[in-house]
Task: structure prediction
Amino acid sequence: MAEKPRPLVAGNWKMNGLTADLAEIAVIRDALAGALGGPDIIICPPATLIAAAAQLCAGSFIAIGGQDCHPERRGAYTGDIAAEMLRDAGASYVIVGHSERRRDHGESDVLVSAKAEAALRAGLKVILCVGETEAERAAGHAPDVVARQLEGSLPSAPHGDSLVVAYEPVWAIGTGVTPTPNDVAEMHGFLRQRLAARLPESSDVRLLYGGSVKADNAAELLHLPAVDGALIGGASLKAAEFLAIAATYR
Ligand code: PEP
Result:
């Protein structure tokens, strides 16, 4: 059996954070300095803070990510940001297909896949999000929905190491409600099988759980054999809570 990949704890700040909040990143960097054997850490601040965050974390093992990118390299796309620009600002990852983008911006699987392609072309690693709504779960369609999103949103031929997949049930995001550990294990097992059928190097793809992860539920949700880490929204905004979640891997 392939060795389990190193765990990954990623924070998604969403549309939160001003310059003063970079202090939280500095606290995380300083707390983890010299700490060996913990999880990989990624922080995805808003685009306005990427360059400063990358500078703060230069020489540390904290990676910085964007929260979205445009599929094109450049052009007349007011307000958008190209993957190359994220890379140029110091990002090494980008989230694509977050449910808030799918819902609020009508992003289709085809568009998400094009964004993932653009990210790889720019030298970024991709955190691809999939997850069902409450109604889809209640109707018993959760596996079909996440399988369709996964297959439709994958970039063609990613190297395993360049792809991270986050299972984020929409009904768990920002609600304080989480699936049971059994539900998470089941969906991750299913996604792992789908990945294996699709990608030759899928054992290197880390499969994160996301949705209302907090310090007090991290141990039970993140230490399942099928889970390789977490994508964290609200609880990533304060260094102490984020560090407490990361500490469950020590
Ligand atoms: C997210 O939006 O990716 C997320 C996991 O949010 P939260 O942790 O706040 O539920």
In short: The beta strands are 8-12, 40-44, 62-66, 93-96, 125-130, 163-167, 206-210, 229-232.
